[in-house]
Design a protein that fits this description.
about 400 residues, alpha/beta, Aspartate Aminotransferase, domain 2, Aspartate Aminotransferase, domain 1, about 40% helix, binds pyridoxal-5'-phosphate
Length: about 400
Amino acid sequence: MKKPEHQTGIRTLAVHAGEQPDPSTGASAPNIVMSTTFIAEPDASFSVEGLDEETPFIYTRWGNPTIDQLERKLAALEAAEACIAFSSGMAAVTALFLHTLESGDHVIVSDVCYAATAEMTSDLLPRMGISVTKVNLSDPDELRRAATPRTRLVYAETPCNPLLRLTDIGKVAEIAASAGARLVVDSTFATPVATKPLTLGADYVVHSLTKYLGGHGDAIGGALLGPAGELADLRKRVAIRTGGIISPFNAWLIMRGMATLPLRMRAHAEGALKVARFLEGHPRVKRVIYPGLPSHPQHDLAVRQMGNFSGMLTFQVEDGQAAAKVLAERLGIIHYAVSLGHHRSLVFYLSTRELLESSFRLTGEQLVSYREFAGDGVFRLSVGLEDPDDLCNDLDRALNHL
Ligand SMILES: *Cc1c(COP(=O)(O)O)cnc(C)c1O
């Protein structure tokens, strides 16, 4: 059978890329190959040094047919040369840091990003002798000022968690390149349906597959995408040796979820826009932030950079901490829980004071910008695939108890 071509539409790629019918049984759906080891040639090498594209499967930490299919599918969706899947999004971030950085290097990280990334860059990296500057990357001039000849990596997240503030990837890529640094974009909130950072000048893309790509809240996984040569090197030197690889079973679940990604993202975005508009008109709601709303401070950039506004929004109410209790008790459809990107809608309250103390520790203009988007705290709502009217009614019933 012929393979789908690179320029095939995203829905076709999501269904077919990376997969092929099993040559021995003709099975149309991919197998789950749970085997940890594979029958080897008597002259096979026991070292990863000689590993290349042609090496047969030897041991699942080195490579596995089911994981390989997931990696090929995601690479096709992101228009990437290569992909490595990991046991979690954070394992992917860790592997990238270990591969690209060494003692004495400088990294610029978005001042607001996924909490574990923020915590790792304020704690682990400095302990390894790597200096870190946190920058509000929604302002490219801040990046220009912070870059030094020692800057190796610029780490962006757009839309960023939990603010949904955006970074102009093309602009930031240009500045990073002229400073001699590589740009990595955590594109978990956007997904390749909305944005393909590599086509805008980024060097690497990171995903938590746990979120939209898996899409069903039943498997944790992560991925790193980028140039083939570098990723082959990273796989040998870091991924295989540090061992944060994904289970073939999770890879299979996530690949199954990815087949419907373009359709799900369309429904997530449509639902989120309806819910965002409803919340914007609700008397108990002070502020709604959603990239698809004209009221988003960077709506123009969202229109330019995002082919789909995704399903994440935040809203603010009076005394959010108290409201969190009411919502957790009163919501009937929407689960009060962390995580995002699932078919089930999820909501969680993120107090500004708490997040700033535990993760972000911002001061000055960065703090002002954070508060501009989040006030004292936000409800982060991941709009699922339920009927939007049911979600609005669920929220209305709970909010009217405030
Ligand atoms: C969840 C998340 C991560 C971490 O992914 P895990 O799979 O939980 O390790 C990283 N970045 C963003 C934006 C996320 O939402």
